[in-house]
Design brief:
69% helix; mainly alpha; single chain; Core shell protein Gag P30 domain-containing protein
Length: 78
């Protein structure tokens, strides 16, 4: 297979997306034209999904901690 050919490019994109974590895979799959996009654009999209996922986890943790403090009447900063 020619590494410069379009078949190799398509195979690389498919492998990249299918081997990704499920949330990243689903995010990329929402764009029906993902196979026609350049690999650089797919990498950028997956990075955005990854960063957003981490931000959401941090926000959920902060919310859980604030609820825990409220339930146990712990003042902030202690």
């Amino acid at each position: 297979m020619d590494p410069e050919g379009p078949a190799f490019d398509t195979l690389l994109k498919v492998q990249f997306v299918t081997k990704a974590w499920p949330d990243i895979w689903k995010g990329v799959q929402k764009d029906e034209e993902w196979q026609n996009k350049p690999l650089e654009e797919l990498v950028r999209k997956t990075q955005q999904i990854y960063v957003r996922r981490n931000e959401e986890k941090e926000a959920q943790l902060a919310q859980a901690l604030s609820l825990d403090f409220a339930v146990h009447n712990i003042p902030p900063g202690n």
